[in-house]
């Protein structure tokens, strides 16, 4: 009895430490990996890992994302000109009606509010779209589940698109202030819908795959492992390809706006978005659906709040030491209190506290991403303004930004079928931390390229650094820099490459590092970093002017390289713990155990409806 009481007094983190406990059977090459179909540790270490076949329901979810992203980028890609530039000569819809302007450097426009207001409203749109995923995650986890949440908010998003079309009608454009108010309402409604979809569609696509680690024999006779981790990596590569295929499908928006006006350009994405609820309904009985499990986000916040309370101090150094202490999570553990003495706010079990602790450690990775998204955000509008100051030869300036998704569509299959398999065959472990670091470096190079380009535009534009995108003669004829607009392709292509390394890996990391019942939490937290990036952008509104673009791009480039390097040296030790982190929440313990029916039986965490 005394022994039992002594054990109960032992801190829980000492009993069940995820990282520190030693497993003697790890050294047994013939021990079976937990959750696999009889794969031994030796086979895991020596056989080549390959992606498994994806179920067709995953492709249905991919199509939903494709259609939703087409409609998102089919509107946001033309926001810059719509807000920034005035109506072209003789236009009532925003279209370029003068044949000479259309063949030359004429651009569509509507509201005429200028670069800074355009930047501010577009930045707010990005902020709002990436903060509302938290709302979607709470509703999905506590009330509806992911499927119903996506279905309901797709209707909300569709309503927002209808409002957007009305903002661009010729009647609305007669009063730019009225059109601006309707546009702001549309942005809010669409942001609620798209954000709530965003936090749920990413984990839902990966949940469609329920395979286990298993052996397979290829036609060549080679025995390989069908790896869930590699399969998830492949799923998110193609999921991201669908995002960018939808984005490149929005190429038509630039031509529609220039040739037919903005109400037509916004109407086409609205029609496409109708497909989203239809496809969701068609696959209703086939999708693997994760049922709601309670307010996971709210409970997570409460666990952190209770653990953080005793650690808080007016001395920041003391607070940091308390957070790093091994006893930090004890105030939130039920086992830290005598029977019946735990605070009423503690409604969870020991396992949940452990999941929160390990997930917080893993998700610290995402805290560096706002600086990456600062670089990415420049391709949404500022580089479009750069293009507007160059010689267009009849190319709409906001068309150029579609080079980013086109580049991704080309490069993703190359990475999935050739580059990543080549690295695996050569035994080169290009881990998530290394990939994300590479993404930061490439994004930084993209911004430095843009800074140099902007410098030469200042030198060659007739207006130099005095708003070269709006440079006109006395008779309103556009005066452009002689530099060909396609030279601006460099930053778009480099940012696309950086997305393969950083952005796609962040989706994969958010899914694989989250316990099953916390995937929406982690995905929402990952996407929240883009909202934080938008806040940083808001703070830089005063320098988001054309005469400061070279300085702005150069600063972002240097920052990305420095922050990326700090990121790598901060988290490079996680590479050695990759397998353990992937096992969070997937069983009682990460590691390798002897095969037995009770050990090999998977925990029921999803339901086929």
Automatic annotation (TrEMBL):
Pfam families associated with the record: PTR2 (PF00854)
Record membrane topology: Multi-pass membrane protein
Disordered: annotated span: 1-27
Keyword ATP-binding: no
Annotated localization: Membrane
Molecular function via GO: dipeptide transmembrane transporter activity
UniProt-recorded name of the protein: Peptide/h+ symporter protein
Gene Ontology CC entries for this record: plasma membrane
Family: Belongs to the major facilitator superfamily. Proton-dependent oligopeptide transporter (POT/PTR) (TC 2.A.17) family.
Gene3D superfamilies attached to this UniProt entry: MFS general substrate transporter like domains (1.20.1250.20)
InterPro entries xrefs: MFS_trans_sf, POT_fam
Origin species: Crepidotus variabilis
Keywords assigned: Membrane, Transmembrane, Transmembrane helix, Transport
Top-level division of the source organism's lineage: Eukaryota
Chief subcellular location: membrane
Transmembrane segments: 119-140, 152-173, 179-197, 235-256, 262-283, 360-379, 399-423, 435-458, 485-509, 549-571
């Amino acid at each position: 009895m005394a022994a039992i009481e002594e054990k109960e007094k032992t801190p829980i983190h000492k009993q069940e430490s995820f990282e520190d406990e030693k497993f003697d059977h790890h050294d047994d090459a013939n021990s079976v990996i937990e959750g696999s179909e009889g794969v031994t540790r030796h086979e895991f270490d020596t056989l080549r890992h390959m992606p498994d076949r994806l179920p067709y329901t995953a492709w249905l979810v991919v199509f939903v994302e494709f259609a939703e992203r087409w409609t998102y980028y089919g509107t946001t890609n033309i926001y810059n000109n719509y807000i920034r530039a005035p109506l072209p000569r003789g236009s009532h819809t925003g279209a370029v009606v003068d044949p000479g302007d259309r063949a030359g450097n004429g651009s569509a426009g509507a509201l005429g509010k200028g670069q800074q207001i355009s930047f501010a409203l577009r930045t707010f749109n990005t902020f709002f779209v990436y903060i509302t995923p938290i709302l979607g995650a709470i509703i999905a986890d506590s009330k509806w589940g992911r499927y119903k949440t996506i279905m309901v908010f797709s209707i909300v998003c569709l309503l927002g698109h209808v409002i957007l079309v009305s903002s661009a009608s010729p009647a609305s454009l007669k009063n730019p202030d009225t059109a601006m108010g309707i546009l702001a309402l549309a942005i809010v409604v669409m942001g609620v819908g798209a954000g709530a979809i965003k936090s749920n569609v990413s984990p839902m696509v990966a949940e469609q795959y329920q395979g286990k680690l298993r052996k397979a024999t290829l036609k060549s006779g080679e025995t390989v492992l069908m790896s869930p981790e590699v399969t998830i990596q492949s799923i998110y590569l193609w999921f991201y390809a669908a995002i960018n295929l939808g984005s490149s499908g929005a190429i038509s928006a630039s031509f529609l706006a220039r040739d037919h006006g903005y109400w037509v350009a916004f109407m086409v994405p609205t029609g496409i978005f109708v497909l989203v609820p239809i496809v969701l309904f068609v696959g209703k009985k086939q999708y693997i659906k994760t049922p709601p499990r309670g307010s996971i986000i709210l409970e997570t916040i409460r666990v952190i709040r209770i653990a953080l309370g005793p650690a808080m101090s007016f001395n920041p150094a003391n607070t940091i030491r308390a957070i790093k202490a091994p006893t930090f999570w004890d105030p939130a553990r039920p086992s830290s209190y005598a029977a019946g003495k735990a605070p009423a706010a503690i409604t969870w079990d020991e396992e949940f506290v452990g999941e929160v602790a390990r997930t917080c450690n893993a998700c610290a990775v995402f805290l560096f991403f706002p600086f990456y998204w600062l670089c990415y955000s420049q391709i949404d509008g500022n580089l479009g303004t750069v293009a507007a100051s160059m010689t267009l030869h009849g190319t709409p300036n906001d068309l150029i930004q579609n080079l980013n998704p086109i580049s991704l569509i080309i490069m993703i299959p190359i990475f999935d079928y050739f580059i990543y398999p080549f690295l695996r065959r050569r035994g080169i472990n290009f881990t998530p931390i290394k990939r994300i670091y590479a993404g930061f470096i490439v994004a930084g190079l993209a911004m430095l390229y843009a800074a140099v380009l902007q410098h030469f535009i200042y030198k060659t534009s007739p207006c130099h650094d005095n708003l070269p995108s709006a440079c006109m003669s006395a008779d309103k004829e556009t005066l452009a820099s002689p530099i060909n607009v396609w030279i601006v392709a460099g930053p778009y292509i480099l940012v696309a490459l950086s997305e393969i390394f950083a952005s796609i890996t962040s989706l994969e990391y958010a899914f694989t590092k989250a316990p099953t019942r916390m995937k929406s939490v982690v995905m929402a937290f990952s996407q929240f970093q883009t909202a934080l990036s938008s806040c940083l952008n808001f703070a830089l509104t005063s320098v988001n002017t054309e005469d400061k673009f070279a300085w702005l791009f150069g600063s972002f480039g240097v920052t990305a390289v420095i922050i990326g390097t700090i990121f790598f040296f901060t988290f490079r030790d996680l590479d050695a713990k990759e397998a353990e982190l992937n096992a969070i929440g997937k069983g009682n313990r990460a590691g390798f155990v002897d095969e037995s029916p009770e050990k090999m039986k998977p925990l029921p965490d999803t339901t086929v409806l």
